[in-house]
Amino acid sequence: MNYIENTYICLAAPLLLAILCLRADARRSLSFVVAGMTACLLSAYVSAFAAGVTGTDLTSASHEIAPVVEEIMKSLPVLFYLLVFEPKKRIAISGILMVAVGFATFENICFLTSYGSADLLRLLIRGFGTGAMHVVCGMVAAVGIFFLWDQPWLQAVGSFALLCLVITFHALFNIFVNQTGVVFWIGSAIPLTMVLIYLTVFRRKIRFS
Amino acid sequence: MINSINNILQIAVLLICVFIALWRSLRLRSRSWGLLAFFFASWVLGDLYWLFCLLFFEATPQISVVAVLSWYAAYIFLYMFLRQTAPPDGVGERRLLPWLGFVFTFAMAVFFMQRGEYLSNLIYATLMGLLLFASIRRLIYPQNYPTQRPLCIAILILCLLEYGLWTASCFWWEETLVNPYYWFDFLLTASFLLFLPAMKKAVVK
Fold first, then answer.
1. What is the pLDDT of residues B54-79, one digit of tens each?
2. What's the total number of domains in chain A?
3. Across the interface, do A158 and B34 touch by the CB < 8 Å criterion?
């Protein structure tokens, strides 16, 4: 049996201490990472509860419940930050990505503790794949929130639509990575490829009028 | 067999549309094309999710919320495009005709509720009602929206084909070409292609 809250405490404790010592950008970034890890921990509880209530088995829950819960939980710290602090665009985008990174990191650690660390190649693919998937979801949300809308009500409705979009993307990724063989490889490669395409081709072009 | 061909064809067309819309969005630095790209992407992700559930688990999802959320998002993106490109004040727009969109969608929702879920049908009725309302209004007041006529016609066709598809699925289930569901779905696939030239006209001028 895994006690992920114990793992969480071990990981979060030094980070929390560092947050107290750091200043400005570094403190903010680290806070987002911890918020992402916390969102991941809470998602596990909520997903397990929802799966129990609906009587869903583990495989189905991974692509029918977990993506919905995880993406909503992941958006909450960002939403709080955006609404309360009204940050600049650059800072908010960094925040969205750092929350995604924190979430992916803790998810990978949970995967490690559940399935062991013997198969390096699989862990490598999964590590990069999951990380890239969460970063892609964060990037899509950031592009949508900050570049597509001006009016506040459009931002609110649009953010909901974007949340729906990233939930489906996440669910598709989960379907693929729960398979074995070529399908697993393809599933992990898709978000990685998207990140690479973004970095090489689109990075300079995403500057909407 | 016909179902798989139908799904694959729709996904292929939508993927092409996503890439074209995304490319134009980046090339022209256009939010409108960006919203259209998001519309196509949401739709195709919902389709892909449904297809892969059938492929890997040989069953439709037990909880269909993920695919449904994706299709909701597609309608929202389309409506947001219409809202974003609306002029600040619609001069003299007080006719009752656009409200027929809501009357139609809610009447259909009552019909579908006898066979399906309540909440999902209400959300679909609201989103489709908004799209129909906005499209009809732009068609009957062309002076306020001079470049959007083709796009509004494309949206109207899309909405009506969707309703044809949903209605057909209530009465016919067999996987043959005789089933009107597939006719509507093939037409729906073709209707996505209408959006590209229509958007080009709406955005360029």
1. 888 877 777 678 888 999 999 999 99
2. 1
3. no
